[in-house]
Write a structure and sequence with these properties.
Elements (H helix, E strand, L loop, with lengths): L6 E7 L14 E8 L5 E4 L3 E4 L5 H13 L6 E7 L5 E5 L6 E4 L7 H7 L11 E6 L2 E6 H6 L12 E5 L4 E6 L6 E3 L7 H7 L8 E11 L16 E6 L4 H9 L7 E6 L1 H26 L1
Parallel strand pairs: 6-10, 11-15
Antiparallel strand pairs: 1-2, 1-5, 3-4, 6-7, 8-9, 8-10, 11-12, 13-14, 13-15
Length: 292
């Protein structure tokens, strides 16, 4: 489709003896690099302004042909188009071949752009796609885009498509399999998923009845407690020793920044204290033996 900012090359052929467009030794009038104005029009000599924006090159050529024929019946019009920025999009990062892409037609979509860029980079964890259109940003995951074709939006000239890894994360501390920061590897990560990602909990140290999820809400999320939290800092407790607790862990969705804390078992704490006391008594005995 022709859009403002595109450039058109017009060639008008006329074999008439007394042509308005060509001379005695000339059979073609060349009008190169006519820029489509912001209003979507071009100026054609002896015709005036012609609105070509929104038309295909063939449709625009036929329109100009009809208007030129009204003045020069024997004229024949040729048209070639060079797309401007308004007919291209920018594919920014996250694909194998990022860059500026000229849209071949008006059905060019987000997935079409990703395909034209060589596909999503295999190094990204749960890749996300953002469509920047003017001052607005629309975002979803690539997996959702694959599963739901209705989200595959048709692009407009000047759009920017950004593919990047999922920036959301959660933390694990305490008697967990690993103490680290973990990226979300899917759109929805449950507490049970998180425990699997971190490698479970330490069998000899952790208390399966005391898995804590520490979350801090923004002040704008607070409410009277009917449909939201009453305080910004909330601790959720999960008991993995019961079936209800396991089901609850599977249905509890983490938010970015949540902390999964596996508490120490009371038995472990008792053993630690007894070990320290035993070590102290052992040192005293050794000291008595030396003094004797």
């Amino acid at each position: 489709m022709i859009r403002p900012g595109d450039s058109l090359d017009l060639l008008v052929w006329d074999s008439g003896e007394n042509s308005l467009l060509t001379g005695a030794e000339q059979r073609v009038a060349t009008l190169p690099s006519i820029r489509v104005s912001e209003s979507g029009s071009i100026f054609v000599p002896y015709v005036g302004k012609v609105k070509v924006s929104g038309r295909t090159p063939d449709s625009a050529r036929a329109l100009i042909q009809r208007q030129v024929e009204a003045i020069v019946p024997s004229a024949q019009v040729q048209l070639a188009m060079a797309e401007g920025r308004a007919n291209s999009i920018d594919l920014v990062g996250g694909v194998n071949n990022p860059g500026n892409i000229v849209m071949p037609d008006q059905n060019f979509s987000v997935l079409s752009a990703i395909s034209a860029g060589g596909g999503v980079s295999s190094t990204l964890e749960n890749p996300q796609v953002k469509l920047v259109r003017g001052q607005k940003i629309y975002a979803t995951s690539v997996d959702r885009l694959y599963d739901n074709p209705s989200l595959d939006t048709r692009l407009r000239g000047g759009d920017k498509v950004i593919v990047e890894g999922d920036r959301r994360y959660f933390l694990s501390l305490g008697a967990a399999g690993r103490e680290a920061q973990f990226s979300f590897n899917r759109d929805d990560v449950s507490a049970l998923d998180a425990l699997a990602i971190i490698g479970g909990v330490n069998d000899s140290r952790a208390d399966p009845q005391g898995i804590l999820i520490l979350r801090e809400y923004s002040s704008t999320a607070l409410s009277d407690g009917i449909r939201g939290p009453e305080k910004t800092r909330v601790v959720f407790t999960l008991d993995l020793t019961t079936s209800d607790g396991l089901f609850s862990a599977g249905n509890f969705h983490l938010l970015s920044g949540d902390l999964v804390l596996a508490t120490e078992s009371p038995i472990t704490n008792t053993r630690t204290i007894l070990g320290l006391v035993g070590s102290a008594f052992g040192l005293i005995s050794v000291g008595n033996n030396i003094s004797d």
